[in-house]
Amino acid sequence: MKKPTLRVAKWLGDIPVEASCTACASIAFRAKGSSHRPNREEYQKSLQAQFDEHLRMVHSGRETHE
Q1: Gap between the Cα atoms of 62 and 64, Å rounded
Q2: φ, ψ for residue 34 (rounded to 5)?
Q3: Chain segment 43-57, per-residue pLDDT in tens
Q4: Element at 9 (helix H, strand E)
Q5: How many CA atoms lie within 13 A of 18 on its CB side?
Q6: Mean pLDDT of 31-37
Q7: Region 19-43: what's the mean pLDDT?
Q8: What is the Cα–Cα distance from 32 to 46, expressed in whole angstroms?
Q9: Do 29 and 51 meet the contact criterion of CB atoms below 8 Å apart?
Q10: Start-to-end Cα distance in the chain
Q11: Chain centroid to CA 37: how far?
Q12: DSSP string of 13-59, one letter each residue
């Protein structure tokens, strides 16, 4: 099985606003920012942090069980 990756599903211009896990079709991550104005770097970090947490909670150790 391939390692799950983060896939951006929705963009606002060049700013990622929603992403998903390639291994979990029903999981969606929505970017969160500290201001009302979208910030590309902040949104990228938000999506990556949510994905990293998802990997840790859901996918850690899967390779050892297969």
Answers
A1: 5
A2: -90, -10
A3: 999 999 999 999 999
A4: strand 6-12
A5: 5
A6: 90
A7: 94
A8: 6
A9: yes
A10: 9
A11: 20
A12: TTEEEEEEETTEEEEEEE---SSSS--HHHHHHHHHHHHHHHIIIII
Q: 8 φ, ψ to 5°? A: -75, 130
pLDDT confidence of 36, banded at 50, 70, 90? confident
- Measured between alpha carbons, how far is 38 from 59 in angstroms, rounded to an integer? 30
> So what's the pLDDT on residue 12?
96
Sign of CA dihedral 19, 23, 48, 59: positive
* Residues forming a β-bridge with 7: 20
Question: Percent of the chain scored above 90 by pLDDT?
Answer: 77
Order of all β-strands in the sheet with 15-21: 6-12, 15-21, 24-30
Looking at residue 65, its pLDDT comes to 39
